[in-house]
Design a protein that fits this description.
The protein contains eight helices and eight strands, in the order βββαααααβββαββαα. The strands form two sheets. Strands 3, 4, 5, 6, 7 and 8 form a six-stranded mixed beta sheet that branches. α4 packs across α5. Bound molecules: iron/sulfur cluster. Iron/sulfur cluster binds next to α2.
Length: about 300
């Protein structure tokens, strides 16, 4: 695509219509925000309200970073010990890149930090209970993928891992590190994976054989096999969702939709469902959502 990228009033990246026709973009995280609660979408994507990192989110980021780096090692070296050795250096790297993470632990709180690092190592044990990375050679890790649907909507997101079998079969893998009740988030997690499946199908012409959720805390695997008809329906759902976002934006009407997920929402103080008042609807556009899409968890209390 050669068109120039710009940011629209929705805070989503758009691409000028000439020479192509793409005019908006949507990530699975933001789409899922709108599905979960339109007001949450507004707070995150339009108001761009900051959210302080939580220990749980930081742990998820750390474990994702370790698992990504683990596959940099030669296959025989991808052992639980090697993963454990990566925890502390990866945390140091993350804190250097995002100094706010250091505020999660009071100065000199070595005990708290040590417990945090050990809890991350515990999640990695969960990973090794369900997979042997010595037997895997991922095709892609932390990869940004995108496709145009409905001739004008760019859908894109970062997948944790893509495995390609010798026969060309695709397996999309997503690591889940959150401690929140799984049933509260599983539909959202599957929505995210179908989003990636749709992108891969549209760009490679292959429907992924497996969408895999790895729940590291419980050391469980959840596999889902999509089919083409389902992805056609899903594409319609995504496009309809985007139309609904456009309408809500035009009307400046994003309503709260309270649910169990409110327990993990950072914005209760501004939410009418909790006696709060949203800030005035912003008139200015926002920064690049591609950065945001990776730095913010998919939902309060859950990992991307
Ligand atoms: S507290 Fe609940 S209803 Fe309010 S914005 Fe957050 S998720 Fe939506």
């Amino acid at each position: 695509m050669t068109a120039e990228s710009v940011i629209d009033a929705q805070g989503e990246q758009t691409v000028a219509r000439a020479p192509g026709t793409v005019r908006a973009s949507l990530s699975p995280s933001r789409a899922a925000d709108f599905k979960t609660c339109p007001l949450l979408y507004r707070f995150r994507s339009i108001d761009r309200l900051p959210e302080r990192p939580t220990v749980e989110q930081a742990r998820g980021t750390l474990v994702h970073a370790v698992l990504e780096r683990l596959f940099d090692l030669p296959a025989p070296a991808r052992t639980p010990e090697s993963a454990g050795d990566l925890v502390s250096p990866q945390w140091d790297r993350l804190v250097t890149e995002e100094p706010e993470l250091a505020t999660l632990f009071a100065d000199g709180d070595a005990v708290g930090l040590d417990g945090f690092l050990r809890s991350a190592a515990g999640l990695l044990e969960g990973y090794f209970a369900v997979e042997d990375p010595r037997r895997l050679e991922p095709a892609e890790r932390e990869a940004l993928i995108s496709a145009v649907v409905d001739d004008e909507l760019l859908i894109r997101g970062y997948l944790d891992r893509l495995d390609v079998a010798p026969d060309g079969a695709l397996r999309v893998v997503d690591y889940k590190t959150g401690g929140a009740p799984r049933e509260a988030f599983e539909a959202r997690a599957l929505f995210q994976l179908k989003f990636y499946a749709l992108v891969l199908w549209r760009t490679r012409g292959v429907v992924p054989r497996v969408l895999r959720l790895l729940y590291l805390k419980d050391a469980e695997v959840c596999d889902y096999a999509p089919d083409a008809e389902e992805l056609v329906r899903f594409e319609r759902t995504v496009v309809a969702l985007w139309r609904a976002i456009e309408q809500a934006t035009a009307r400046q009407d994003f309503r709260p939709r309270p649910s169990r997920l409110c327990d993990w929402c950072s914005h209760q103080s501004r939410c009418p469902s909790f006696g709060g008042t949203p800030p005035p609807f912003p008139v200015a556009a926002a920064p690049d959502p591609l950065v945001d899409a990776r730095s913010r968890p998919a939902t309060p209390g859950a990992d991307e």
